[in-house]
Amino acid sequence: MQFISTIDVHQALERVAPTDIAVAFLGADWSDYIDANRLEQIVVSPNLGTNPKALRELIRVLKGWSKVHLLRTLHSKIYVGKDAGAFGSFNLSERGINPEHQEEFGALVTGVQEVEFLRSEVDRLRQLADSRLGTDESKNEALVRLEREDNLAKARQTTGYVEGPGSQSTLRNFDMLTDRDFLIVLWHDADLRPNTESIQKQAPDLIVADIEADRTPHFAVIPSDAEIYAPGTPVLLWKSKKCGNPTITPFPKWMVIDHVIDEGCKFDDFPEYTTLVTGIEMKGRLAPPFELGNKDEAARNALRHLLSQDEFSAFRLAAGDTKPYSLRSAIPLTKELIRRAKAAIDGA
User: Is this prediction's pTM over 0.85?
Assistant: First the structure.
């Protein structure tokens, strides 16, 4: 056994050439340090500290969850190859492996018994992970939950967020894991009046004047829909025409939900909409699920066309509709909407 410190970690991992890994946190630059083609199994913690975009990229590269296992209580850092292994304090991230960041310590082992002991420990952790999150559906839900927690940590600048956003995603390479990876809200202009008393009581960090001046992204929903809008969830906000179809301009924007405020607003013409949803614009390191900016005309056109079709009418509310709108019937259609939009782009 050879002890290794900060400057030795990268070289040690090259010597190990890992096939079996158990690490608490996965960073944005994981592929700089391991060869995914060698991987047989990897166990990762789906808690704050793991970069969710990096985890999405890992399951994309490995073509699914079969080799990727999630364990919330994981704190180990173990790397095992054919005839060598390493363990210590270093996560699979730039901050854990690049000597310019943190001080790390561990050991490199080459003895047959030592290597097999480490491999058996990764096997044990994988079995434990599968006993708790053993299905693709449960892993998808855990990843989406991590994305929400990560969004909130970055939006509110709290602790837990470790690295950069990872690769920027386009609609073409975005995979919808659950019905609620993100929400689509088509909105109309309306005379919304914030309820200052409710806002100050439930979200004292919000500035009411910023809501009134549209500096804080926001929209109103019916109270029975409030649980749909979980804090941390990305929302694609798209202005709609009077008929309910999305507009060509302005472009849609992304926000991440920050607060859901009961009795947070009032409308003279629409008294049913009393729950106020506020958010923070997704840009910079608070990266959206996929980009829809100036360079993504094909993606915008595909989504706008589909959202205007009868089969996706559940997303729309015409200006003259008097029945209170609920997003519930639209949510199960989101996966198919994204699948069809991606197919349209690939076929263009």
Answer: yes
